[in-house]
Write a structure and sequence with these properties.
Layout: H1 6-27, H2 33-38, H3 45-67, H4 81-97, H5 102-111, H6 115-138
Helix pairs in contact: 5-6
């Protein structure tokens, strides 16, 4: 395994779990990023404020990590813009179709022992594995 950092992984998992609990206790809502971000377009100002603060926290987390001495890895995007846009659109469509995203089902739903979230998580993890295999080994360099 390359670049395995168990301390950072455990700390990140604890922080994600803690934020999920805070959102559930504070708002009575499941912390699914798709639902939170989609609700920013709501007309309910009280609902929009916490959602914007949540989104700002996602972005600020990177800067806080860096200011605490954390190093970011370089990311090289090798796919075309067309594939990136198509992939983003499919993720958005799939999370709408599945009534939730990876954070809603995978973190919060599994934590609540939801059978529906277990099925959704198994589905998107299985499809992700197949996608990686096909794009890296079957299509090899075509993307």
């Amino acid at each position: 395994m390359e670049n395995f950092t168990p301390f950072e992984a455990i700390l990140g998992g604890v922080l994600i779990g803690l934020s999920s609990v805070i959102v559930l206790w504070g708002n009575g809502r499941i912390e699914g990023v798709r639902g939170i971000m989609g609700g920013i377009l709501s007309r309910d100002i009280g609902s929009v404020t916490w959602r914007i603060l949540f989104a700002m926290g996602l972005i600020a987390g990177v800067f806080i990590y860096r200011s605490a001495g954390g190093a970011l890895q370089d990311i090289e995007i090798t796919s075309s813009l067309l594939f990136l846009l198509a992939g983003g659109g499919l993720v958005g469509f799939g999370s709408s179709l599945g009534s939730g995203c990876t954070s809603g089902h995978g973190v919060c739903g599994l934590g609540r022992r939801s059978g529906r979230s277990l099925a959704a998580t198994m589905t998107f993890m299985g499809v992700a594995g197949i996608t990686v295999y096909v794009t890296r080994h079957v299509m090899e360099g075509a993307l």
